[in-house]
Design a protein that fits this description.
The protein is α+β, with helices and mostly antiparallel strands. It has helices at 5-14, 18-24, 30-59, 65-98, 106-109, 123-166, 178-208, 213-248, 250-267, 273-300, 303-308, 310-319, 337-358, 394-402, and strands spanning 325-330, 363-370, 373-380, 407-411, 418-425.
Length: 428
């Protein structure tokens, strides 16, 4: 939205002395005439709604209740049909005279004028009706008051000055100057009245004829949430694609290489000791590379998670931990693949931290779905003192959980035990 010129003037006036502020709003100042012209220009448009409502009543006043109701309905329909044009003219007036750009409302402005008859429950429609039938007429009354102040002040001042000048010196009664003083006071007050009406009109037009700020913020939050969910889903899809490519490509080649080297190691005879040593080392390196690649593939997106679900995937993770693990999984119906992946990586990273840092003797994993929430907890009886700021991977886990609007909590007092709990929304 373009910053309105009057807002810029307001900021300027707030930083200057009262004397300069009063001088800037003097009756002969440009700001005074601009504000007066703006308020006066709105009177026809702000009374237009009621003029449309009353035009038929001025021509014909029915006495039959049926015709009265019919006339009321026809008048209301005409007002609804005229709302788009009246609103467009009001916005144009604000832009042309104040530089205030009031954005359009697509739900209200797009379409044909008679679409307003079908959108009677639209909040935008009723905000526009509120401006044209309630706020606008009140502002028009304020504008007429400003015009009356200018007219009365100028009339009183000119009349008193003319009477004083035309009265012979010493001839009673001479003018007392009361009218002139009243006129000067009205001329001094009129610019400030115009400022007040102009500010009220601009704020009301921006609030009622433009998009609802609360709804716009709500819509923006929804759009950002959808975009974030799309990014998370896209990242998960890309991880699965990389996992498939590695599993079907590089991993299979390494398996074939390890098999061939193992076969050569077992079957070749009569080769020099140095050559056999090279084959043995190459075989061992191939097996280590294959193990590392399998861990990498499993870290990207384990195939068992997609094929058999979270229960089988967590069972596989628990089986690789060199500690007694109690596992309880109740996750039916299944959540989305993105939520299951987050739950899997939370458990996997938490178990890695337990093995590396906790010095625990046992671990308990619980994954339960209750309604639209998947709750996962990993508890150990280790030494505790886990601190996300020390780079144990907990910060990354918290970010991953928040990426799907989940909550992450860790309780790890010194001396233990440590419990990591996440709650993930399943309605994704």
């Amino acid at each position: 939205m373009v910053v309105p010129q009057w807002g810029q003037y307001g900021c300027f006036m707030a930083s200057v002395s009262p004397a300069r502020r009063a001088l800037a709003h003097a009756p002969w100042s440009r700001a005074a005439w601009r504000d007066t012209a703006f308020t006066a220009s709105g009177v026809p448009l702000q009374f237009a709604g009621w003029a449309i409502l009353g035009v038929f009543w001025m021509i014909w006043t029915p006495s039959n209740i049926t015709f009265i109701l019919l006339l009321i309905c026809v008048s209301l329909v005409l007002v609804l049909l005229a709302l788009r044009w009246l609103t467009a003219w009001q916005r144009e007036r604000c832009w042309a005279m104040l530089g205030l750009d009031i954005p359009r409302m697509p739900d209200f402005d797009d379409g044909r004028p008679w679409d307003a008859l079908r959108d009677l429950r639209s909040p935008e429609l009723w905000r526009v009706v509120q401006y044209h039938l309630v706020v606008g007429p009140l502002l028009a009354i304020g504008a007429l008051t400003v015009i009356a102040a200018w007219a009365a002040g100028l009339s009183f001042a000119v009349y008193d000055a003319f009477a004083w000048a035309s009265s012979p010196l010493g001839s009673p009664p001479r003018p007392t100057g009361v009218l002139g003083l009243a006129g000067v006071l009205l001329l001094a007050v009129a610019p400030w009245m115009a400022v007040a009406v102009r500010r009220a009109d601009a704020r009301a037009a921006a609030a009622l004829l433009g998009p609802d700020r609360a709804r716009e913020l709500e819509r923006r939050v929804e759009d950002l949430a959808e975009q974030r969910a799309s990014v998370v889903d896209a990242a998960d899809i890309e991880r699965r694609r990389i996992e498939r490519d590695l599993h079907d490509g590089a991993q299979q080649r390494l398996v074939s290489l390890a098999l061939n080297l193992g076969l050569a190691r077992e079957t070749l005879t009569g080769v020099p000791q140095e050559a056999m040593q090279v084959i043995v080392e190459a075989h061992e390196e191939a097996k280590e590379a294959l193990a590392e690649l399998r861990d990498l593939v499993r870290g990207l997106h384990p195939a068992v998670l997609e094929d058999r679900g979270l229960d089988a995937a967590l069972s596989g993770v628990a089986a690789r931990v060199p500690l007694p693990v109690r596992l309880r999984v109740e996750v039916e119906p299944r959540a989305s693949s993105t939520v299951e992946a987050v739950a899997y990586f939370v458990v996997s990273e938490a178990l890695t931290n337990v093995v590396r840092h906790a010095r625990a003797s046992s671990v308990e994993i619980v994954a339960l779905r209750r309604g639209e929430v998947l709750r996962v907890s990993v508890a150990d009886d280790g030494v505790g003192g886990a601190d996300p700021s020390r780079g144990t991977g907990l910060t990354g886990l918290a970010r991953r959980v928040r990426s799907v609007d989940g909550t992450f909590r860790i309780i790890s007092p010194a001396g233990g035990p440590t419990t990591v709990t996440v709650e993930l929304p399943c309605a994704l």
